[in-house]
Amino acid sequence: MAHEDEYHDSLVTMLETIWGKGYMAPGGPGNVAKLLNGIDTHGKRILDIGCGIGGPAFEMARTHGAEVIGIDLEAPLIERAKQAAAELDLADRCTFQTVEAGPLAFPDEAFDIVISSGAFTQIADKTGILGESYRVLRPGGYLSCYDWLKPDGDYSDDMRYWFKLEGLTYALDTLESYGRHLVNAGFVDVTTEDASEWYRQEVQREYELMRGKLYPRMVELIGKDDADYYVENWRAMVIVTAKGEMLQGYCRGRRPQR
Questions:
Q1: How does pLDDT run along the chain (258 residues), one tens digit per residue?
Q2: Distance CA 167, CA 234 (A)
Q3: Which of 26, 51, 146, 163 sits between 20 and 30 A of 247, alpha carbons compared?
Q4: CATH class of the region 9-254
Q5: What pTM did the predictor assign?
Q6: Are 171 and 123 in contact (CB under 8 A)?
């Protein structure tokens, strides 16, 4: 089945307005720093799964000294990332490819580090993508990811309403399940960290900005109807994060040395 693009221009503009130029997940450069904390990145080859429009890849190249290959399902996002790489004079260190869902089109042991920020959230086959991440890592290499998560149990009406507003494909899992998936894929030194309290505070701050001093800029960029739509989207997200129904977490594992 052909992939249907979900990140239209209005949504991308909105995400950049909230999360920073080039970013389609919370945290900006600080999130990249957290994902790479304690990992030697200078001169290393990084695969960024779900790279979006390239912000994290550019940060990994400029600040962390890495060479980055970014992949995404959505061709318009990749085209924007390529254009930005050229404008930033980073095309020799950050390259981008449109891919199809399924096995990664890279040989075994091709990367030192695999990164994903908010992309595994939308992949139902966690076993498959984590297994593929392990395969393309060199021995001793790290997988580090940030994702949106859920607790055990069924979705509430508030969650279903937020999903409807988001209009995106979600396949949320628990933090505990992520840890098990990494171990089952063969990773060692597996760690998981619940970052939900951080984002509960962050999303409230974002919501107040969106309905306050940021609102005129949003109207200017995307029009009043879309601006109002995203304010309501964030209001709904404040509710599900406050209730502990939409969670955040970091996971990391290392492929063993031979």
A1: 445 656 777 888 888 888 888 998 888 889 999 999 999 999 999 999 999 999 999 999 999 999 999 999 999 999 999 999 999 999 999 999 999 888 999 999 999 999 999 899 988 999 999 999 999 999 999 999 999 999 999 999 999 999 999 888 889 999 999 999 999 999 999 999 999 999 999 999 999 999 999 999 999 988 999 999 999 999 999 999 999 999 999 999 999 997
A2: 13
A3: 51
A4: alpha beta
A5: 0.93
A6: yes
